[in-house]
Write a structure and sequence with these properties.
single chain
Length: 242
């Protein structure tokens, strides 16, 4: 493994390996995910970037899946997921293909993974290969064109959930820790939709939701913007079929 690969492995082990962020999947994002997965019954599902498996387990229960698999770059995270009866494996999907046979999964969930990847095409190629015909892909990723990023850019600040350093939070309108400083490909919703179509998926639904933990006034503004403008929320959701 080269020096860059070692840095990446240690970074995700340190920052994402032990547990999920407290409250990270609070409303409205978790609510949207559970709603999507509770509308269908899936036999076998895969969570790409499963972390400790807490969310994987919720989705498994929501769609009454018989089996849940997980992939994560953090070895400690996959150990925690396996303790929850998730069939989790440690894998760097930038460098390695999914170790599953073709047409294996009924649904694949890839949440907040796309933006971390150098080779985003490999992720979608593996998803289309391992999904069954008619299978479902649910992908979420930060939306570069969310309304407060547009304001930040207009005022000359770095967009939220992007960064120029793994160690220093600089250039932002408001301090928010190091969240997003490792993001490589923060996309607008339209670009994600078009790329997924290029990889032979059929888009069933695309929308955005506001960030968790926003003050009431910001939530109201987000709600108004989302109704007036296409995809102006913080997180892009795409539901697609093979």
């Amino acid at each position: 493994m080269d020096k860059c690969g070692e840095l990446k492995e240690h970074y995700y082990q340190d920052h994402f390996g032990d547990s999920d962020y407290p409250g990270f999947w609070e409303f409205p994002r978790e609510k949207a995910l559970i709603r999507i997965f509770s509308k269908e019954s899936f036999g076998v599902i895969l969570d790409v970037g499963c972390g400790s498996g807490s969310l994987t387990l919720k989705l498994k229960q929501a769609c009454n899946a018989s089996e849940a698999y997980g992939i994560d770059i953090s070895e400690s995270a996959t150990k925690l997921a396996r303790d929850k009866d998730i069939k989790a494996i440690c894998l760097d999907i930038d460098n390695d293909d999914f170790p599953f046979q073709s047409n294996f999964f009924d649904a694949i969930f890839a949440s907040e993974i796309f933006e971390h990847l150098f080779d985003s095409n490999r992720l979608l190629q593996n998803c289309i290969r391992t999904l069954k015909a008619g299978g479902t892909l649910v992908l979420t990723s930060p939306n570069l064109a969310c309304w407060y990023n547009r304001i930040a850019l207009l005022l000359g600040y770095q967009p939220f959930y992007t960064g120029v350093s793994l160690e220093h939070n600089v250039g932002h309108l408001r301090q928010h820790g190091l969240i997003g400083n490792d993001h490589l490909r923060v996309a607008i919703s339209r670009a994600l939709i078009e790329l997924i179509i290029v990889h032979k998926f059929h888009i069933k639904k695309a929308f955005t939701v506001a960030a968790a933990g926003e003050p009431f006034a910001i939530r109201m503004v987000s709600s108004i913007f989302n109704r007036v403008f296409f995809c102006s929320g913080m997180t892009t959701f795409i539901v697609a079929k093979k």
